[in-house]
Structure formats: structure tokens, C-alpha cells
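Morning F.,

Quick status update on the modeling queue. The single chain you submitted on Monday has been processed. Sequence for confirmation:
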Amino acid sequence: MKMVCVDDEPQFYEQVREIVSQCREEGGNVELLFYDRPEMLQYDLSEQKFYDLYLLDIEFTGSMSGLALAELIREKDQAAQILFVTSHAEYALAGYDYHPLHYILKSQMEEKLKQVLDEIVREQSDQAAQFRIFRKHSRIEKIAYREICYIYKDGKNSIYVCGDGRTYAERKPLAQIRQEIRAPQMLAIGKSYIVNLNRIERLEGQEIFFDRTVEPVYISSRQVKFVNESLYQFLRGE
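C-alpha cells below.
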């Protein structure tokens, strides 16, 4: 999860950094970036650079307000999760105009922020086991792993072949996708394929056929035994 914190109090950043460190120690994958001026995030948005979670103060000295920044985020990034953290409870009603995930007072931040981050990380972990999630500009798309028959390398892209004939291209090397995927049914075969064990209908010679109308996957003779054993163990629940 990519998270950006916008606040002009350095000591607040240290508190947030400590809470994020606790999440990482508990297995949460959180990448934190800190800006002390809202204009820095405004520039990112203009460059089509988006984050999963925006942690915003509301009052900035001599700058645009956090509410104005939230309005800009909503215009640019419809999938944004916004979290207001402020010392000013009187802004709560105005803040909710921008549909924030939560509104936390700084006096309660240590307890509340940890709870919110734990919830987000847990939800993302659950989704990561069921879906491949893509972020394209300001949109989030996801494909259920059960729909994917296989993934193959095509230059700098990885191509997802789904059972209904749809294909998706992701500009990531297959090696990186192998590291990111947590779904046990997705098996990496060499450097060229990731196949869905749940979708394999049969192995015939060096070809893998699927239970959907898609092109079969051709593998080398030395990979046949590996796929056979992996499929057998998976079906046995091992």
C-alpha cells in the first residue's frame, strides 16, 4: 500500500512513521511518503501520480487547506482513500463532504491510526489472495484469480488470459508478478508462464489444456514432470 502524509508539523511525521513501522513489523506492506506542503502533492496529482491512502491535515500555514486538497484529490483520483488527521474537531462536518475513510483527532492518533491501517492492510491482504488488482491512472481494476487461465510474458508486458476470452496487459515483468501473487493455485512455470491449477483440464504431451476455450500452453519436456507433480499435490490439498 502506497501512503502519503501531508502535514507541516515534523513531529507529527515522526509519530506517523512509528505507527507505520509497527504495521510493517506485523506483516503489513506499507510504503510511506511525507510532504510538508500540500502543493507538493498537488504537483504529483497533476503528473498522474496517485496513492492508495492520503493522510491529510486540514490547516496549513500560508497554504491551501486540507479540505481544498481533498477536493482536488477527489477530482483527480476517484479511487482515493482519504483520511483526515487534525487537531480541529470543528472541521469534521466539512471534511465529510469529501467522503473520507475516517476522521481522526491528533490527540487520538496513536490508537486510532493504527486501527485504521491494520483494517486496510488486512482487507488488502484478503483481496490479494482472491484478486489481481491493477491501478490505471485514477482507476482501480481487479480480476478474480478464478477467471484467469494463465499469464504469459510479452516483451515488457505480462498478458492475463481469462476464461471468457478477455485479455489484460500489465506493464510489469512476469518475475515481479510471480513474487507479488499470493494465490496458491497460481503456479509459475519457468520464466514464461504462470498457470491457474484450478483451470487445468488435462496435460497432453507438452501441452496444458484448460477448462475454458483458450489457447493451450506449450511447455518444455523437462517441465512436464514438475507441472504434473504440482497439480497432483494441489488437488490433494498439499
